[in-house]
């Protein structure tokens, strides 16, 4: 919520105690001390949309630049859709493994990914 805030109501809209997300932001600050402040500083220095844009570019690099080529080499048919891959159910565990590996390489953190339900 804090990353994608919009100018309507100002960039501090979430800070008011009557805000629907005020308690969420307090919990975030308790769980990750300094994160909210770091996001604010980044936005103040680089602009309010710089961080979400940078994160989207990084995500795209991992999904399209790293994971997708590995799947293509293995002849796994996939269709990238924003922050996921559409694939055959039989390929889903390997697709998840490849994506987890590339995300971990990019961030140093092991992500928790889930395989969605089949649509047909």
Structure description:
It is a single chain. The model has no long low-confidence stretch (mean pLDDT about 85). The chain is built from four helices and two strands, in the order αααββα. It folds into two domains: about 35 residues, no CATH class; about 55 residues, no CATH class. With about 120 residues, it is mainly α.
Brief description of this entry?
The protein is mostly helical and 120 residues long.
Question: How does the SSE layout of this entry go?
Answer:
Blueprint: H1 22-31, H2 35-46, H3 50-73, E1 78-81, E2 84-87, H4 92-107
Antiparallel strand pairs: 1-2
Q: What does the overall shape look like?
A: elongated
Q: What is the number of beta strands?
A: 2
The biggest beta sheet reads: 2 strands, antiparallel
Tally of individual domains: 2
């Amino acid at each position: 919520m804090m990353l994608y805030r919009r100018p309507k109501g100002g960039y501090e809209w979430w800070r008011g105690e009557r805000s629907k997300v005020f308690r969420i932001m307090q919990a975030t600050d308790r769980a990750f001390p300094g994160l909210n402040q770091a996001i604010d500083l980044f936005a103040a220095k680089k602009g309010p949309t710089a961080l979400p844009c940078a994160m989207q570019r990084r995500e795209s690099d991992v999904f399209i630049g790293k994971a997708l080529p590995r799947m293509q080499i293995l002849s796994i048919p996939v269709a990238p859709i924003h922050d996921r891959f559409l694939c055959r159910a039989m390929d889903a565990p390997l697709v998840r493994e490849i994506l987890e590996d590339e995300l971990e390489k990019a961030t140093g953190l092991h992500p928790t990914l889930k395989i969605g339900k089949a649509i047909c």
